[in-house]
Amino acid sequence: MKLPKPGKDYFYVGVQIILFVVYVLPISLAKISYPEWLRYSGFFILGLGLILGAVALLQLNTNLSPFPTPVANGKLITNGAFAIARHPIYTAVVFSGVGYAIYQVSLFKLLITLLLLVLFYYKSIYEEKLLIEKFPAYTDYKKRTRRFI
């Protein structure tokens, strides 16, 4: 049985989608330059983000949802990627966004990633209230694991 999604769920996911779309637009704010090694360090950060995200997605399996409201028959996961961060997918998206922005030498993409980080911060606060209601053990998990890396 699917639970109806509150308006906040749709708001957060809608803003997230808009920011994802804006991120891929070919917009340049200013010409900046930095050493080639720094550019390629962005590629490394992107890779770390992709690996963390893939591991978290595999762990979530049927618990996966773009919405902050936990799925009806979901289980609390606290190991693997979720032992590193309470929100490893958000962390992975931010790492990937920063890494790609550095690699592409894009101040615009860096700015959009910063906006995504702010969105994920508030979305995670809302999500954690719901997780505490559904999983009383989440309170202890929250004390020992950081929100993001």
Automatic annotation (TrEMBL):
GO CC field: endomembrane system
Subcellular location: Endomembrane system
Xref: Pfam families: PEMT (PF04191)
Entry membrane topology: Multi-pass membrane protein
GO molecular function annotation: methyltransferase activity
Transmembrane regions: 12-30, 37-60, 100-122
Keywords assigned by UniProt, alphabetized: Membrane, Methyltransferase, Transferase, Transmembrane, Transmembrane helix
GO biological process, one term: methylation
Primary location class: membrane
Protein name listed in UniProt: Isoprenylcysteine carboxylmethyltransferase family protein
Taxonomic source organism: Marixanthomonas spongiae
Taxonomic lineage of the native organism: Bacteria, Pseudomonadati, Bacteroidota, Flavobacteriia, Flavobacteriales
